[in-house]
């Protein structure tokens, strides 16, 4: 995700801003820039690509004199990674510059309003509306202009603002995106996280949502949306920089598991407006959707398993056949695909070689392609006919978590959107399912909070030589991803099986004390899965059941329990996978594995 920094004091600002941006590089970005005030002018330098390009362009900051400024690393969401779209963004009158981390959900309406009022836009970003709002509301009092402009924004933001009329001052504002103030001596700072502050100060003030800050070299004043001063305590950072990059978590994977409610909210919320799903960004028209007679989902690894989970929702709601194909198989299978096939391509990185190749095979056969990717401007995004971005932010750990759950969430969005466009769903069901989608972030937070026993379960199972994950229908789809998570970070052999398949061979492997993880969250076939639990128990298996808190029947059968919150069955995977991500994480930790960088694996498999 984006990162912002700010400095005001007696030193040259540019070198400090550049060093701060380097400390934020781990967050992932594709462009960067700084703005420094000097002689009542704002000079802005922006580049696409790495901070090194910015250092080269500014001669390590030497050609940007001034003692106050702001900086930004951009993870593109709205608008491709280009110099123009890079931050900081300037007002038309040149008085203001802004840096922003977050997503402004109502930026289209604001852009229309500002354009009608004569403000000229240069970029495709959502952020640019902020600097023009500040210019519009400014009448000599920057604090009031920043507060008024922020009151018009819907979504998430951590803002940094400079103004030529108050050259020593920085303004900062926070709503749902982290922002921390650094307290120095004769100089002060702000940054998206402490990694950029620790080299200069360990005394920090954490801004809370809805708060603003006026920062000068000798003072920091925090105030609320009404402009009233707020007392804030100064905290002392004891983390080392490496720990700080993980937000205080021991591993990026755990940080990214915890980030999932926010990642899914950022992905879903901007696409639900006035009780309707709005995917106009895709260009998928009702006419086109009515013309297709098949959907093929293709991907690799966890993205493939996300497709397996999304299949149930699309088939149930759209009543159209959905084939989920491994990209490495599809590309060589001479697939039966034509102009009446919609091919959905899933990829966190947008650079997976097999997926790209499979996509090209499908396009050759006349299919339209819809990419669901997490990296703006990635190869898959550029090749696709239509694209829906997952706004999970950069995923650093090799084992995907928020990448998977945001992909599944977008497939749920698409299923409901397409069903409505294809006139396959009634108003009442649409409304009920839309409400269910809106509650997904909360359900995932519940799934994170309701299993404090998982670290102890990990101690019990971490020595297992093999693990079986079984389930039926939507539970089976989750079992597939749960087994992969366990394999790739704990190195324990784990197999996922359709529970109904056990008696066709696999049950021969069930011996005394064989751990079996049974997923039982699909109420329509719960009795069947319970029979499978009884079957394996009869042969000595130890069963860890994954089900709802009130499911007493399963509790009496299983040896151990993991709980998930109830959701619509077709939307179950996004929350049901969460405790299995945590189980894999804690088992791997017990085994002393390199959790963020598992052996033999790469974050993006860009070769065949
Ligand atoms: C998942 O944890 C793995 N890292 C791997 O299976 C991954 O999902 C697969 O390589 C696909 O990557 P992509 O989503 O970037 O295309």
Low-confidence stretches: none
Oligomer: single chain
Mean pLDDT equals 94
- Which second-level CATH architecture of the largest domain applies? 4-Layer Sandwich
What is the strand arrangement across the widest sheet? 3-2-4-1-10-9-11-14
Please report the first level of CATH classification, the CATH class of the largest domain: Alpha Beta
Structure description:
The protein folds into three domains: 3-243, Glutamine Phosphoribosylpyrophosphate, subunit 1, domain 1, CATH 3.60.20.10; 247-438, Glucose-6-phosphate isomerase like protein, domain 1 (Rossmann fold, 3-Layer(aba) Sandwich), CATH 3.40.50; 444-594, Rossmann fold (3-Layer(aba) Sandwich). The protein is 36% helix and 22% strand. It is built from 22 helices and 26 strands. Helix 18 links the parallel strand 22 and strand 23 (493-498). The mean pLDDT is 94. Bound molecules: 2-deoxy-2-amino glucitol-6-phosphate. Residues 300-303, 347-349, 352, 355, 398-400, 488, 604-605 line the site of 2-deoxy-2-amino glucitol-6-phosphate.
């Amino acid at each position: 995700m984006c990162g912002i920094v700010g400095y005001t004091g007696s030193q040259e600002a540019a070198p400090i801003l550049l060093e701060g941006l380097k400390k934020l590089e781990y967050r992932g970005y594709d462009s960067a820039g700084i703005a420094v005030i000097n002689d009542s002018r704002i000079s802005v330098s922006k580049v696409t690509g790495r901070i090194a390009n910015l250092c080269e362009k500014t001669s390590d900051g030497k050609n940007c004199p001034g003692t106050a400024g702001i900086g930004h690393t951009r993870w593109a969401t709205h608008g491709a990674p280009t110099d123009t779209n890079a931050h900081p963004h300037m007002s038309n009158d040149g008085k203001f510059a802004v840096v922003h981390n977050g997503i402004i959900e109502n930026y289209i309406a604001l852009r229309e309003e500002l354009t009608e009022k004569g403000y000229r836009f240069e970029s495709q970003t959502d952020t640019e509306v902020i600097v023009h709002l500040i210019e519009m509301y400014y009448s000599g009092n920057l604090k009031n202009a920043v507060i008024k402009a922020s009151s018009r924004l819907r979504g998430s933001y951590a803002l940094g603002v400079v103004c030529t009329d108050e050259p020593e001052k920085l303004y900062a504002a926070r709503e749902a995106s982290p922002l921390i103030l650094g307290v120095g001596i004769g100089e002060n700072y702000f940054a998206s996280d402490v990694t950029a502050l620790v080299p200069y100060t360990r005394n920090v003030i954490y801004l809370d949502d809805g708060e603003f800050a006026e920062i000068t070299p000798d003072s920091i004043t925090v105030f609320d949306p009404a402009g009233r001063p707020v007392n804030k305590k100064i905290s002392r950072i004891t983390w080392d920089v490496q720990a700080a990059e993980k937000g205080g978590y021991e591993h990026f994977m755990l940080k990214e598991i915890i980030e999932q409610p926010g990642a899914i909210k950022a992905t879903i919320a901007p696409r639900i407006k006035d009780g309707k799903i709005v995917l106009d960004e895709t260009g998928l028209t009702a006419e086109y959707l009515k013309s297709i007679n098949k959907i093929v989902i293709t991907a690799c690894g966890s993205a493939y398993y996300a497709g397996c989970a999304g299949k149930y929702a699309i088939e149930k709601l759209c009543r159209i056949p959905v084939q989920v194909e491994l990209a490495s198989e599809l590309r060589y299978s001479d697939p039966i695909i034509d102009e009446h096939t919609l091919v959905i391509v899933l990829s966190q990185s947008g650079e997976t070689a097999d997926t790209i190749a499979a996509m090209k095979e499908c396009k050759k056969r006349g299919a339209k392609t819809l990419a669901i990717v997490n990296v703006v401007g990635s190869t898959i995004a550029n090749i696709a006919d239509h694209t829906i971005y997952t706004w999970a932010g950069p995923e650093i750990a090799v084992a995907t978590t928020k990448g998977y759950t945001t992909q599944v969430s977008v497939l749920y969005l698409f299923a409901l959107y397409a069903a409505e466009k294809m006139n396959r769903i009634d108003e009442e069901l649409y409304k009920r399912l839309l409400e269910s989608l809106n509650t997904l972030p909360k359900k995932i937070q519940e799934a994170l909070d309701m299993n404090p026993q998982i670290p102890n379960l990990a101690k019990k199972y971490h020595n297992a030589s093999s693990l079986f994950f079984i389930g039926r229908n939507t539970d089976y789809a989750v079992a597939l991803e749960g087994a992969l998570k366990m394999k790739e970070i704990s190195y324990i052999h784990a197999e996922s099986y359709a529970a109904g398949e056990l008696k066709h061979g696999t049950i021969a492997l069930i011996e005394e004390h064989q751990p079996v993880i049974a997923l039982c969250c699909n109420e329509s076939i719960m009795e069947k899965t319970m029979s499978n639990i009884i079957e394996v128990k009869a042969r000595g298996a130890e069963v860890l059941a994954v089900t709802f808190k009130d499911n007493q029947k399963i509790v009496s059968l299983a040896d151990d329990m993991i709980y998930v919150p109830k959701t619509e069955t077709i939307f179950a995977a996004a929350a049901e996978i969460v405790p299995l991500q945590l189980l894999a994480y804690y088992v791997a930790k017990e085994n002393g594995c390199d959790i963020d960088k598992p052996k033999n694996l790469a974050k993006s498999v860009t070769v065949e």
